[in-house]
Amino acid sequence: MKKLVLTALIAAVAAPAAFAAAKCEQHPKEQWIKEADFKQKLVKEGYQIKKFKVDGNCYELYGKNKDGKKVEIYYDTVSGKPVKSEIQD
């Protein structure tokens, strides 16, 4: 029983760490979509932004999508395309 609990605990701790390793292509900062413009685009698409930040070479969104589901999405800073995403029910 202890081994099962320990395994579950390790999996719970390791999962967020594994997700956080999004790899976005490195671009010169002058080529990046302006942060304010990109946030405005996301809001127009129906996202509710709880937190928005730069994570390495990615833009990172924490919030809800148009369906009200929690999301964590990493975006390329030049193309604006999602690089990695997680949607929770």
Automatic annotation (TrEMBL):
Q: Which Pfam families match?
A: PepSY_2
Residues of the signal peptide: 1-20
Q: Which UniProt keywords apply?
A: Signal
Report whether Signal shows up as a keyword of the record: yes
Q: PepSY domain: from which residue to which, for each copy? A: 6-86
Q: What is this protein called?
A: PepSY domain-containing protein
Instruction: State the organism's lineage.
Output: Bacteria, Pseudomonadati, Pseudomonadota, Betaproteobacteria, Neisseriales
